């Protein structure tokens, strides 16, 4: 990963802490990655940011989906055509989550149907096309898989490209990067 500035490096270190702490808590961790956005998301960074906060906070009150969650890393970005979207990585107890692809679908549908009330769009990155990025269940002893996860997936989430800049000249801060603090 190219650490082209301090902000990117800080994000990367925070994300590595989430992964490392998750693996300290459980020797098997299910890693889920989703791309999240909303229909007609042009110019709606505030709305997407609000929905991401709701997703994060609802984890406490929805044990059927989030019961075994350990941590998360979420990056809000502005893409082409002013399209706001988020890349999200979630860690779950791997001994409890037997099917990571199904868990990713559950999270995506929850985003789509509950959080955004039908306005959400998601892409499940735990599909076959992403198998080489070490998504799914990772063992604590698999150093190569952990490094590949950090380099390829976390490095992508922490990149500075597509960062949100206030085009209106305001001082308003948009929280574009968030990650959990894992209690040991």
Can you describe this structure?
The chain is an alpha+beta fold. 38% of the residues lie in helices and 26% in strands. It has helices at 6-25, 45-58, 63-66, 100-115, 143-158, and strands at residues 28-42, 69-78, 83-93, 120-124, 136-139, 177-179. Strands 1, 2, 3, 4, 5 and 6 form a 6-stranded antiparallel sheet that branches. Strand 2 and strand 3 (83-93) form a beta hairpin. The two termini are 28 Å apart. The model has no long low-confidence stretch (mean pLDDT 84).
- What can be said about the biggest beta sheet? 6 strands, antiparallel
Overall pLDDT: 84
Shape descriptor: globular
**Class per helix and strand makeup:** alpha+beta
Radius of gyration: 16 Å
State the order of secondary-structure elements, H for helix, E for strand: HEHHEEHEEHE
SS elements, strand count: 6
Assembly state here?
Answer: single chain
Strand content: 25-35%
The amount of helix comes to: 25-40%
Low-confidence regions: none
């Amino acid at each position: 990963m190219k650490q082209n500035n301090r902000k990117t490096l800080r994000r990367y270190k925070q994300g590595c802490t989430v992964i490392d702490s998750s693996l300290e808590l459980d020797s098997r961790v299910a890693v889920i990655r989703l791309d999240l956005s909303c229909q007609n998301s042009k110019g709606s960074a505030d709305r997407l940011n609000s929905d991401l906060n709701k997703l994060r906070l609802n984890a406490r009150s929805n044990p059927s989906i989030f019961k075994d969650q350990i941590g998360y890393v979420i990056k809000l970005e502005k893409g082409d055509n002013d399209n706001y979207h988020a890349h999200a990585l979630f860690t779950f107890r791997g001994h409890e989550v037997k099917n990571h692809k199904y868990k990713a679908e559950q999270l995506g549908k929850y985003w789509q149907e509950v959080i955004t009330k039908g306005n959400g769009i998601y892409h499940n990155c735990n599909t076959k096309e992403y198998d080489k990025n070490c998504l799914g269940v990772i063992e604590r002893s698999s150093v190569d898989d952990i490094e590949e996860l950090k380099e390829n997936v976390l490095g992508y989430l922490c990149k500075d490209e597509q960062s949100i800049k206030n085009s209106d000249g305001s001082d308003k801060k948009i929280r574009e990067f968030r990650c959990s603090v894992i209690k040991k």
